[in-house]
Amino acid sequence: MVASHGIVLRGPQVSGKLGAPVILQRADEDFIGAVLEELAGTRGLEEVLKPEKVASARDQDGRLKLYAPLQRTFHVVLVEALCDTFGEPRLDPMQIESAGLVIRRCVRISEGRPRRGSNPRVPPVDDRNRLEGWRQTGKRFRAWVPFSSTAEGDLDPEPQRRPPALRSGHPHIDRELARFGASVDQLLETVVPLFVAPPDVCRALGRTVLYGMLPTASADLSEVPGGIAYSTDDVRSVVSPYLFSGVDLSVSPAQQVIGRDAPQTLRSNTTFMRILAAVQQATFQFGAFDPDSKAGREVLALWNQQQLPFPNGATRRLGDWLGEASQLLVVQDQDVGPSALQMPKGWPAFRPELRQQLLTKMQTQLRSRVADVRPQVARFDDSSRAYRLRAFVRLREERGCQHGPTWTEYTDPFSIAPWYDGPARPPVKIELPDFDKDFLKNLKPNVVFAVPPKMLNILNNLKMKDLMDGKKPSEDGTTLQWLCGFNLLIIFMVAFMIMFIFLVLFNIIFGWLFWVKICIPLPGGSPSPPSPANA
Fold first, then answer.
1. Which of 71, 81, 335, 439 is in the most buried spot, having the most CB atoms within 10 Å?
2. Cβ(430)–Cβ(32) under 8 Å?
3. HEC string of 417-439?
4. What is the CA radius of gyration of the chain?
5. 281: number of Cβ within 10 Å
6. How does the average pLDDT of the chain come out, rounded?
């Protein structure tokens, strides 16, 4: 039977009390087994909680820095469960029905400037410690969803285990109850399981210890597209003024009629290059000339309300002119579009109402285009974000009464280092063969590429001089598909030698050769590993 008193869940310490879980940092191959073995040893917690075994590295913003398994570094979470009575005896493990931990992300301040003294690279965390959980509905992930209140964050992560929402039958009273967290959101939060240490470990420690692996990498992807909200100021800062400006703009190319080679012949003309950038933006970022893009056609229709004047006294709609410029200068399809383009003699300011309509429509279209090309958001894909961890236990039911979870305090905010920022550990060795002609010529292809005819012809007709002159390689040649076999080791060795060439070249700029290339000789071959007795 479950005792009627409460329980305390906290991080284990040799001396003193710690409300938050302990995060260990291990490099052992069998890191869980090593931790449990040390806990059952004569020194127990004193050995496990050595400073070098507890996560303590800090990032440039002063937050605790954890590492991903890719860096051969693992993190283990430890908590202990005690009875909330005099002397705080350890909780009987048989009373624990289940346990777990949740990782919650700190909400950034979305408005206003960063506080003085903060790093402008990383937006500051909300002073109210608002958090969001990796939550889902059914089997569909909802990504990081903020908690509406502190009370919601204290609820059980599984909706079916939560108490029913309080209802009085009176609308006004129900609204007041909701203000105090009585309304229950039916989103499931992802939980990492915690396990009670084996009985011999708990007896040796005299404590009920729970452990679990802290995941710092995840394959979970959001199935709800994460949109980016562009403000009007954002649109003004990223969109070419030739597409919406409220002032007259200059048009002064070297010649008034330009051909397909204009981007090469007018590179030194700043005004022309700015207009070309506007044409590229209208083509790619807004999809204005894509017949399948409804939003793009709507932006094009607004541009067509603007008239451009020409030297002969005629005027043309801006959208139509941009479409021709796109075919000639961007798409460059010789079978479609004009062979020459007349430049306008001026670029009038947009009417205020048209300008506002364009900014609003482009704001919506940019958000839509980003949603189309932006990859799905992974759970821990942003190394600049801060997270906090919290553990919980559930007790077994007593006489049909289900207990809510008992929570630890939150850990301090921590970040997860990107893949290239790892702890100081021995590097991975990749063995290369000696550069022996007889050995290399005996290597057989172990990968085959199916090369279509046009691509093969382009590759066969590549000439360095033509590339330097900006000429496109000829597509004439074979009409058959080819299978081209290569040996991956040869490909790797070629890439390795090319890397050395570029290291020397870039060393002129960065002076980094002594830091990125460290070569140490081995006398008489590779050293043998130490025996267990001498290790």
1. 81
2. no
3. CCCCCCCCCCCCCCCCCCCCHHH
4. 32
5. 18
6. 82
DSSP-assigned letters across all residues of 263-288: HHHTTT-HHHHHHHHHHHIIIIIS-T
Other beta carbons less than 10 A from residue 455's beta carbon: 14
Which range (258-272, 361-375, 449-463, 516-530) has the least confidence?
516-530
Question: Looking at 198-246, which runs of residues are DSSP E strands?
Answer: 208-213
Distance CA 339, CA 259 (A): 6
Q: Quick check: 104 and 367 in contact, CB under 8 A? A: no
| Among the listed residues 233, 235, 371, 365, the one whose alpha carbon sits nearest the alpha carbon of residue 300 | 365
Cα dihedral: 392, 397, 401, 405 (round 10): 0
Comparison of pLDDT for 215 and 519, the residue scoring more: 215
Q: What is the pLDDT of residues 437-487, one digit of tens each?
A: 778 778 888 999 999 988 888 888 888 887 777 677 888 888 888 888 989
Return the residue matching tokens 């990749």.
430
CA distance 207 to 201: 9
Could you tell me the sign of the dihedral formed by the alpha carbons of 341, 345, 351, 352, in that order? positive
Per the CB < 8 A criterion, the answer to whether 77 and 101 are in contact is yes
The span from the CA of 309 to the CA of 123, in Å, is 46
Rounded to whole angstroms, the Cα distance separating 23 from 416 reads 13
- Looking at 268-351, list the stretches that DSSP marks H as alpha helix, in order from N- to C-terminal side: 270-280, 294-303, 318-325
Alpha helices in 78-220 (DSSP H): 150-153, 171-179, 199-205
Report d(CA 386, CA 219) in Å as an integer.
Answer: 19
pLDDT digits (tens, 9 = 90+) for 73-126: 999 999 999 998 888 899 999 999 999 999 999 987 653 333 434 444 444 544
Tokens of 103: 């990782």
Kindly give, in sequence order, each residue whose CB lies less than 8 Å from that of residue 276, ignoring residues fewer than 6 positions away. 262, 263, 325, 329
d(C-alpha 436, C-alpha 216), whole Å: 43
State the burial class of residue 245 (Cβ atoms within 10 Å of its Cβ: 0-12, 13-18, 19+).
middle
**Six-digit token pair at 412?**
């301090």
Q: Is 311 helix (H, G, I), strand (E, B) or coil?
A: coil
Q: Is 453 exposed, middle or buried (0-12, 13-18, 19+ CB in 10 A)?
A: middle
Identify the weakest region by mean pLDDT among 147-161, 187-201, 327-341: 327-341
**Tokens found for residue 203:** 């007896």
pLDDT digits (tens, 9 = 90+) for 21-35: 999 999 998 999 999
Residue-range domain boundaries for the chain: 7-152+190-224+379-416, 232-373, 437-515
Reference 40, options 199, 207, 201, 212; nearest CA is 201
φ/ψ (deg, to 5) at 291: -65, -20
